[in-house]
Design brief:
Number of strands: 22
InterPro entries: Cyt_c-like_dom, Cyt_c-like_dom_sf, CytoC_perox, Cytochrome_c_Peroxidase/MauG
Keywords: Heme, Iron, Metal-binding, Signal
Strand content: 5-15%
Pfam families: RoxA-like_Cyt-c (PF21419)
Helix content: 25-40%
GO molecular function, one term: electron transfer activity
Largest sheet: 3 strands, mixed
Structural class: alpha+beta
Protein name: Cytochrome c domain-containing protein
Distance between the termini: 39 Å
Radius of gyration: 24 Å
Strand order of the largest sheet: 1-6-5
Shape: globular
Number of helices: 21
Length: 639
């Protein structure tokens, strides 16, 4: 148990105490004033608190974000980066809360400030920024709700869904932000406007020179992140992000090894997972990389250690400042992560209920057809049914254990790279070399090892650095490959049609090894209607399309039979980014002319794009009748 003395030290060192949502001041303004809110177990104060509570993410100083302009397009127009229309274009939701969001930031973009010495982080990377005390100013970062809140529209009405995957284009936001910083330095008129906005009446020659040096420090750092996260052959677009790739690459950069390697690109974008019922699952993330662990009393609240590890690793990947090169995991790593807030946010998330189909907005459910769909859902096809992997859970149930099924890549047949890239990612060890990873005394190799092991080291060190306590029972298992390989005499080609030899070799390595990470998770499908696009990589636009067979496959075998040319199959090109809902197919409208981004499973030359395969989860879909598909879709609305 954490002593009162330790808690007092933590608060004294800059951890901000939180008021419960119910205790926050009320202004009369309601989240649900301009948008319809589903009943998911949260009241208005809880929603507002969830949208605006910092995790310690630090993207740019607030004064910079206010003054920054969008990248120039040559027309001479001056457009603020935080312009509401531009944020809408990027897919970030407005949050016009006058009390908790006076800056008018998008929903989930929050202000973080630490005025103490502990704010002066990464001063080797940002020396001028530290010297100017800019680290102690308010910064803007992202919190959980930026990526896990969504709105749908239908026939002129708007509906807020808490915990649903965002439709934001995170990749473009990062690219535009970096370009905007570069444009600010390159264009002296733009820099002059920026300096006036940031410095105001305190402008001076020295102050402007310092500001320009700080801008260049950010450009160098963000360019390094962009280079590590490069994905030249695949665009994420709206509703997808290679989050695990970004987190692993951020850890690799914090190691600051002069010869750091880049052996795996961040080219496996995944759909943002929906996050209701997270506390009821034994394994989280698409590949189950985040296991559930012991629940303890921490900072005055019950918290599950696995959730704390998962959320800390997330904020590391999403702009937290972190120093891992000057200390060891046992002493803790200095960081901007807000452990107390992470605990409280997870605690509130435990009460979030899955969304129920709103019949008054999206149309009445055909309950007789849904009953037929349940029969199809439980029907055995080749000895298996949908219900074997996807257990039933009532929409309002926030306490029962959720049954989780992990299906090996070899059985699922879906795109391999969300899990394969995480499995194969390696980095130079640097300061991590020789350090322990977990309580089973697994050590990181001194020269080079799997980056996922270093992520555990960085995450545990971040938690220890904030709480001054050694947390036991952290990931008590060795995540190294088992060395067991399987062979199939039927396989004729891995990633058929792909010309990239490395990708084909990576796929073969991941499809011929047995390891817990080389699998994808199946969970209860409650609220699944509100989570399009589908499959782990967002490669299928609607539930109806998911029930069609795919022409693509990860592995070609001698027994493969081609689908007829006229067979209905999953679309390989469709639009993403519109909030307009299709209640018939269940998903967002996917016509190209109604969406800002085009998803392509194949390049324009017809070659399949690794990371965008829409194969897998094909359990007898070709044999379903049109009536069966429609009935299944109707049943899934009821979950």
């Amino acid at each position: 148990m954490i002593s009162k003395h330790v808690i007092g030290m933590a608060l004294a060192c800059g951890l901000v105490a939180l008021a419960a949502p119910e205790a926050q001041a009320q202004s009369g303004w309601s989240v649900c004033r301009d948008v319809e809110c589903l009943d998911q177990g949260w009241n208005d104060a809880q929603r507002r608190w969830w949208y605006t509570t910092t995790q310690g993410s630090r993207l740019l100083p607030l004064s910079w974000m206010r003054a920054l302009e969008q990248p120039g397009d040559g027309d001479g127009a001056i457009r603020a980066f935080l312009d509401r229309a531009y944020m809408d274009e990027l897919g970030y939701i407005a949050n016009p809360d006058p009390v908790h969001n006076p800056e008018g930031l998008p929903l989930g973009w929050v202000v973080d400030q630490d005025k103490t010495l502990s704010a002066d982080l990464m001063c080797d990377t940002f020396p001028e920024t530290c010297d100017a005390l800019t680290m102690r100013e308010p910064w803007v970062g992202l919190t959980c709700s930026a990526c896990h809140t969504n709105e749908i529209t239908h026939q002129g009405r708007r509906l807020r869904v808490e915990g649903a995957p965002t439709l934001a284009d995170f990749q473009r936001m990062e690219e535009d932000l970096l370009q905007a910083l570069k444009d600010t330095v390159a264009d002296r008129d733009r820099f002059d406007r920026f300096a006036r906005g940031v410095l105001g009446a305190d402008q001076s020659i020295d102050g402007r020179e310092s500001l320009e040096l700080q801008l260049n420090e950010q450009i160098v750092w963000q360019q390094a992140l962009a280079d590590k996260n490069a994905a030249p052959k695949v665009r994420y677009g709206h509703a997808r992000l290679d989050a695990q790739g970004h987190i692993l690459n951020k850890v690799a950069l914090t190691i600051r090894h002069p010869n750091q390697i880049t052996n795996v690109l961040a080219d496996a974008p995944a759909s943002y997972p929906h996050i209701w019922n997270t506390s009821q699952q034994d394994q989280l993330q698409w590949n189950g990389i985040a296991p559930r662990m012991a629940r303890i009393r921490l900072l005055g609240e019950n918290t599950e250690l696995g959730a704390l590890v998962r959320n800390t690793s997330e904020v590391i990947g999403v702009f937290a400042h972190l120093e891992t090169d000057k200390s060891k995991v046992l002493r803790g790593y200095p960081s901007s992560a807000r452990v107390r807030e992470l605990v409280s946010l997870e605690r509130q998330l435990e009460s979030l209920q899955s969304p129920r189909w709103p019949e008054d907005m999206l149309g009445a459910i055909d309950w007789d057809l849904a009953a037929q769909g349940r029969e199809v859902f439980t029907r055995k096809i080749d000895g298996e049914s949908c219900a074997d992997c996807h257990s039933h859970m009532a929409p309002g149930d926030t306490s029962s254990k959720m049954e989780i099924s992990m299906t090996p890549l070899t059985e699922l047949g879906t795109d391999v790279f969300t899990t394969c890239n995480t499995f194969l990612h390696r980095s130079k060890s640097g300061n991590f070399g020789g350090q322990l990873v977990d309580t089973k005394f697994t050590r990181i190799d001194r020269d080079e090892d799997y980056t996922r092991l270093m992520l555990v080291n960085a995450t545990v060190g971040t938690i220890r650095g904030k709480l001054f306590e050694v947390l036991a029972a952290i990931l008590g298992k060795d995540d190294r490959p088992s060395g067991i390989r399987t062979e199939s005499s039927l396989v004729t080609e891995y990633l058929p049609g792909v010309s990239d030899a490395k990708k084909k070799a990576d796929a073969e390595e991941c499809l011929t090894q047995e390891h817990p990470l080389l699998a994808y998770k199946a969970r209860s499908l409650n609220g699944i209607w509100a989570t399009a696009p589908y499959l782990h990589n967002g490669s299928v636009p609607t539930l109806y399309d998911l029930l069609l067979p795919a022409r693509m496959r990860n592995v070609a075998t001698a027994l493969d039979a081609e689908l007829p040319e006229d067979a209905a199959t999953r679309p390989e090109v469709f639009g993403v980014g519109s909030r307009e809902f299709d209640p018939v197919k269940v998903g967002f409208v996917s016509e190209l002319d109604q969406n800002p981004f085009t998803f392509r499973a194949r390049g324009e030359d017809g070659e399949p794009i690794p990371g965008n395969f829409n194969a897998g989860h094909d359990y007898g879909t070709a044999g379903l009748s049109e009536e069966d598909r429609r009935a299944l879709v109707e049943y899934l609305k009821t979950l």
